[in-house]
C-alpha cells in the first residue's frame, strides 16, 4: 500500500471513529435517494450520499479497470436507482448492495484514472442524519496505479464469508459407504445482481432454485449439500471455489439464468470448462461473469502465476473426463423430466468459477431471463420442481456410473 493512500485513509477512519463516539451506529443506515448523486464537477467528479445516520466507512481505488470502492457498516440501499444516482460522464457505471454480512459496498467504474482529493462524513448533531462527500480529480496512469489497491487493517478488513454448514441425509452414496457431497453455487448475489429484467434479478432466481434443488437432492438420500451462499450476499468467484474445496465436494454445480441481448436463447444448457469457447454466446457469458466480479470491487493484484496454471492444467486432465460425464448425465436427466433443453445443451467456455482442478464442476444455465418462455417457466414452481428432479436424477446416475468406473481409473 502506498504511504500517501494509507495516511489519507487512516485520517478518514479516525474521523469516523470520533463521530461514532457521539452517536450509536448500531442500527442500519438508510440511503436518501433525494440527497444522493454522482455528478461531474469542474474537471473532476463529486459523490454525495445522504444517509439516515452516520456509519463507519472506508474507501479506496482499484486499477484495471479504474474503480472507486466505498465500504460501509452498513447501508440499506432501498429506493436508490443507479440510473438516478449517476449523472456523470466520467463514471461509466455504479452498483451497490450487500457485500458480506454486516457490510455494504458501492463501486463506481471510472472512465479514467480519477484519484481521491478529499472525503468526509458530516453528521448533523440535531437530526443525526449524515452526508458523505467524496471529490475525485484526474491523475496520470502511473500515479493512479501506485495509489490503488485494497487497504489492509485488522480493525477494518471485511471478514471472510463463513463456510456454510452442510446439510445431509442417509448413510452413504454408493458402495463406498460415503455420502455424496454436492456444492450448489447460486450465481451472483449482494452487490452483483446478475442479469436483470423488470422486477426480477438473476441473483434471486438462482438462490430460490438452489434451495429447491437442495431439497430435491436431500429427498433422494445419501447426499450432503452445501450452498455457497444462503442469502443475498456477494461471494467472490475465488471464495465459491474455496467453499467447495473446504467442504470436500464430490461435485460442484453453479446455477445461472442469464440474459443474451444478441439473438434469443431458450432452454437449459450445461457448460464445462474449456480455454476455447464452443460458441460466441458462451464466450460472452464467461466474459460477463468475470467482469461482474471485477465490477464488484475485487482486487485482482494477486493472480496465479504461469507455473501454477500449468500444474492446475495437469490436475484437470484427471478431472475433465468425469466432468464431461457429469455434464452428459445432467442433460439427459433434465431432458427426461421435460426440459426444455436448449438445442445445443452441452457447451464449453472459460468460466472462472469452474476452475477447481480436482472437483468435477459444471455451470447450468437453468434458463434465460431474456427468453419470454424461459422467464415464465422460471417463475413456475411446478416447472422448477421438475427441473430440480431432472438434475437430481442426473447427479445420481452420474454417481453410480462414476463408482463403477473407479477401479479402472489410474491411481
Helical segment count:
9
Query: Hey, roughly how much beta strand do the residues contain?
Result: 25-35%
Helical percentage: 25-40%
Derived structural class: alpha/beta
Give the tally of structural domains: 2
Biggest sheet strand order reads: 11-15-12-16-19-17-18
Overall pLDDT level: 84
Compute the separation of the termini in Å. Answer: 45 Å
Report the count of strand segments. Answer: 19
- Which CATH architecture of the largest domain? 3-Layer(aba) Sandwich
| Low-confidence residue ranges | 1-26, 169-174
Kindly report the name of the CATH homologous superfamily of the largest domain: Zn-dependent exopeptidases
User: In CATH terms, what is the fold-level topology of the largest domain?
Assistant: Aminopeptidase
- What characteristic shape results from the CA principal axes? elongated
Radius of gyration: 23 Å
Class of the largest domain in CATH?
Answer: Alpha Beta
Order of helices and strands: HEEEEEHEEEEEHEEEEHEHEEHHEEHH
Please summarize the sheet with the most strands.
7 strands, mixed
